[in-house]
């Protein structure tokens, strides 16, 4: 039960962070690119890569993983919104844009996950 409460707490903070990232990106970055979703997902990839590697060394323990990896990163990232945006772009006959958004998000997300893991490995 304790881990469930930690996941809920981390999720509340992660969801609020995702909302704020999207709001700020919507005001400051223009264009057809979905900056809010992209930036939230990239932050989650970087942080989760770090946390998974750090957790592998027992640095955070099960409680820290529940709070930060499952709760915070789980709510910060948004696969469903990303999927909807790609589908909407493709439905709007912006197939090249949809493909580019898909490719950039997957490649950058994986790269940031590995970068986060590399930072954690260097620290531990």
Write the layout of secondary structure elements.
Elements: H1 2-28, H2 35-56, H3 61-76, H4 79-91, H5 95-123
Helix pairs in contact: 1-2, 1-3, 2-3, 2-5, 4-5
Q: What assembly state would you assign to the polypeptide chains in this entry?
A: single chain
The description of the largest β-sheet is: none
Binned, the helix content reads over 70%
Low-confidence blocks of residues:
none
Shape descriptor reads globular
Distance between the termini: 30 Å
Quick check: average pLDDT? 93
Radius of gyration: 16 Å
Number of β-strand runs: 0
- How many alpha or pi helices? 5
- Fraction of residues in β-strands: under 5%
Tell me the series of helices and strands, N- to C-terminal. Answer: HHHHH
Structural class: mainly alpha
Written overview of the protein:
The chain is built from five helices and no strands. It has helices at residues 2-28, 35-56, 61-76, 79-91, 95-123. The longest helix is centred in the last third of the chain and has 29 residues, at 95-123.
Short description:
The chain is mainly alpha-helical. The chain is built from 5 helices and no strands.
Keywords:
single chain, mainly alpha
């Amino acid at each position: 039960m304790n881990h469930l409460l930690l996941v809920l707490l981390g999720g509340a903070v992660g969801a609020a962070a995702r909302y704020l990232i999207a709001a700020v990106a919507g005001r400051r970055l223009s264009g057809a690119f979905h900056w809010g979703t992209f930036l939230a997902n990239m932050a989650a990839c970087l942080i989760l890569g770090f946390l998974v590697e750090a957790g592998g060394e027992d640095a955070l323990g099960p409680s820290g993983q529940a709070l930060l990896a499952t709760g915070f990163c789980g709510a910060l990232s948004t696969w469903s919104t990303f999927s909807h945006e790609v589908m909407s772009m493709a439905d709007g006959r912006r197939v090249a844009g949809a493909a580019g958004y898909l490719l950039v998000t997957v490649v950058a997300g994986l790269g940031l996950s590995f970068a986060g893991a590399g930072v954690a490995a260097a620290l531990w």
